[in-house]
From TrEMBL, chains A, B:
Endpoints of the signal sequence: none
Protein's UniProt keywords contain Nucleus: no
GO BP annotations listed: cell wall organization; plant-type cell wall organization or biogenesis; UDP-L-arabinose metabolic process
Residues carrying covalently attached carbohydrate according to the record: R154
SUPFAM superfamilies, alphabetized: Nucleotide-diphospho-sugar transferases
Keywords: Cell wall biogenesis/degradation, Glycoprotein, Golgi apparatus, Isomerase
Domain of life of the native organism: Eukaryota
Protein known as: UDP-arabinopyranose mutase
Lipid biosynthesis in keyword set: no
InterPro entries, alphabetized: Nucleotide-diphossugar_trans, RGP, RGP_fam
Feature type site, description Required for activity: R154, R161
Lineage, opening ranks: Eukaryota, Viridiplantae, Streptophyta, Embryophyta, Tracheophyta
Provenance organism: Linum tenue
Length: 364, 364
């Protein structure tokens, strides 16, 4: 075997069960660096902005590419739920995928190195995270108990040690941290240099700021909850697409009894976006999140909501009722949430039943 | 300054505001290794077991030592709430201290090294943890936002960025992990070699297994909640002393609006305790914790409980009512909880009012 293995490339894990979704407005030269890790996988590229522009993809990658014309053609009037001129458009890629798992990454993210100097295979770590259980019901002080060399510590109830299905794996970023515009403005030179060698489950009942830069999830389990909202062109807000998806998916995972992990893997985030532009996109969000967070902290999903689609529709009604008062934008967003689910079910006809049957959902 | 500083030892931080509490049954040779870090501080040694035995303390340490005779003399009949032949006796040291902060450490814990090979000043890191705020209301994906080089990430509500007072700092262990007897039996050779460079707040509403090996807290804020229960001699259970204290203090901190941090610092835990002996001590706890955890997850403290003492007395009533059914032991424990508070207030007459006034308690 030893003489043999050097000549034959190992088959990438879950090669036929995972799509890599990349939203972009430019040539995908960044893929060169990812070649050793992504080459065996199928890519779904969602081209944002001017559809007449040609996006160059390096040789040797297996991909499909959708621009705005494709989105409009495929979804018809329902295309209104897919944002334009904002990376929120990535969720269109989630919808057209037919795979069980999704990894999504931004085109300004490169391969990071661990403290030994080795290149980090981010995708492999995400897959490990997704394939091992989560522990949202009790905190383990030695972090992910399923990692090699770790376990549940003394005092951890034995009845909870099986864990629950992991729905989302949220990876982090070396170099440019994911800061908001005010923090970017105040700390223009701050770089993340701390490599924290941990994966952990975000406890049930706790919200977190989900970043879409380096994110994987079980599409079969929670795909319909990963809607990135209405952002960018024609909308009063930007840069809250992933946050919105994160708050929704966390509340739904808590309801369905699934887990969300955060921590490893790191990618190298190369480019700080312009804080002045970001401030313009974010500033309404900075006010609104003060109302959105308490909303998601207290929102209740009924026992009848036994599928992600049902949870999401309930959530859209609550958004309309409770957040519609904050700004008319949320009325529009609530309608788009419904459109998203309709479009999802149209493109994924068996998904509604699948979701209900899958993952031994334990509704509260 | 450069030529000067080499000759003069720096004053240890909080030297006059912190006591180090050590429960022991043997000579404290382990302090030699801690000399550079502990020498300026006052030690409270709680001698467990045979009071006629002499415990040797290395030269140069400033300490007071209490054996069982001292405990009986000082507390009279209330001494019944202090465990014997179990490290739970350490909480007597918390009670007789007059300082604002406590650090407690086991005598089989040595100085650990960080990945660069440098000795870790565990106490200094605990003090950093206690003096910086906690963030129990929302999860920060880059861990403690108050650490150098870190901050709150995009999507973190600005209204929550002041944080809340930190009541407890829970440190971890390299080498021998804090496993229960079944895990020790199954994985006799497992050692913790993963240094996770993180400090984080345990979210509100989430319980955790608190280990007493390497623990610091703000005694002025939560001292009366750090009761280590009835364990060891004459009791049906052992090795749940710190767990009990951890569940109580977490529920009380959640109620009062204070935070608990876990992660750094690491100590080097040298000695695996005997798993067969441990199993004997633990086995009732292994059953009981399946009832205790749901109890603590659902217990409610009333708005009227505006001091830690009041919270603790309420909790003792709930323990009697709800856990008394599980085993008569919990009736006894509930009574001991009341005795503990009476003894605490006797030795700390101004503490009841202090606790109420302190730390801008925000009762739910």
């Amino acid at each position: 075997m030893a003489g043999f293995s050097a000549a034959v490339k190992p088959t990438p894990i879950l090669k036929d069960e995972l799509d890599i979704v990349i939203p972009t407005i430019r040539n995908l030269d960044f893929l060169e660096m990812w070649r050793p890790f992504f080459e065996g996988y199928h890519l779904i590229i969602v081209q944002d902005g001017d559809p007449s522009k040609t996006i160059k993809v390096p040789e040797g990658f297996d991909y499909e590419l959708y621009n705005r014309n494709d989105i409009n053609r495929i979804l018809g009037p329902k295309a209104s739920c897919i944002s334009f001129k904002d990376s929120a458009c990535r969720c269109f890629g989630f919808m057209v995928s037919k795979k069980k798992y999704i990894y999504t990454i931004d085109d300004d993210c490169f391969v990071a190195k661990d403290p030994t100097g080795a290149q980090i295979n981010a995708l492999e770590q995400h897959i490990k995270n997704l394939l091992s259980p989560s522990t949202p019901h009790f905190f383990n002080t030695l972090y992910d108990p399923y990692r090699e060399g770790a376990d549940f510590v003394r005092g951890y109830p034995f009845s909870l040690r099986e864990g629950v299905a992991t729905a989302v794996s949220h990876g982090l970023w070396m170099n440019i941290p994911d800061y908001d515009a005010p923090t970017q403005l105040v700390k223009p030179l701050e770089r993340n240099t701390r490599y924290v060698d941990a994966v952990m489950t975000i406890p049930k009942g706790t919200l977190f700021p989900m970043c879409g830069m380096n994110l994987a999830f079980n599409r079969e389990l929670v795909g319909p909850a990963l809607y990135f909202g209405l952002m960018g062109d024609g909308q009063p807000i930007g840069r809250y697409d992933d946050m919105w998806a994160g708050w929704c998916v966390k509340v739904i995972c808590d309801h369905m009894g699934w887990g969300i992990k955060t921590g490893l893997p790191y990618i190298w985030h190369s480019k700080a976006s312009n804080p002045f532009v970001n401030l313009k996109k974010e500033y309404k969000g900075i006010f609104w999140q003060e109302e959105i967070i308490p909303f998601f902290q207290s929102v209740k999903i009924s026992k009848d909501a036994t599928s992600v689609q049902k949870c999401y529709i309930e959530l859209s009604k609550e958004v309309k009722e409770k957040l519609g008062k904050v700004d008319p934008y949320f009325d529009k967003l609530a309608d788009a949430m419904v459109t998203w689910i309709e479009a999802w079910d149209e493109l994924n006809p068996s998904s509604a039943e699948k979701t209900a049957a899958n993952g031994t959902a334990k509704a509260k």
